[in-house]
Amino acid sequence: MAKKRNSSMPAPAAQDKPATLKDLLSQDVLNKLKAQANEAQAEQDKRKEDERQRALEAKKAEQKKLDNNFEHLLNNSNLDWHKYK
Fold first, then answer.
1. Which of 14-18, 34-38, 62-66, 67-71 has the highest average model confidence (pLDDT)?
2. What's the rounded Cα separation, in Å, for the pair 22 and 31?
3. What b-and-e string marks burial along 52-69, b requiring 16 or more CB atoms within 10 Å of the CB?
4. Would the pTM of this model clear 0.85, i.e. be above it?
């Protein structure tokens, strides 16, 4: 008769893997690191949003300044007055 394999033995591949930093750190430290990473990501997103908002406000201010400039309006106007007769 053939021998039966013992299925309760752990897989040899799992034992051969080197220990990772995640395996060595406690769950508490790992959670703190994840929270810190999430906080850093949120801060970076906030900075990007603030920068985008400042650029948008600067663009609006520039457009408002140009709209009050008669020379700019004259140079950029459509001079085909025959359409409006």
1. 34-38
2. 11
3. eeeeeeeeeeeeeeeeee
4. no
3-state SS, the chain, equals CCCCCCCCCCCHHHHHCCCCHHHHCCHHHHHHHHHHHHHHHHHHHHHHHHHHHHHHHHHHHHHHHHHCCHHHHHHCCCCCHHHHC
Whole-number Å distance between alpha carbons of 47 and 54? 11
Contacts 24+ apart (CB under 8 A), 21-28: none
| Measured distance CA(85)–CA(43) in Å, rounded | 57
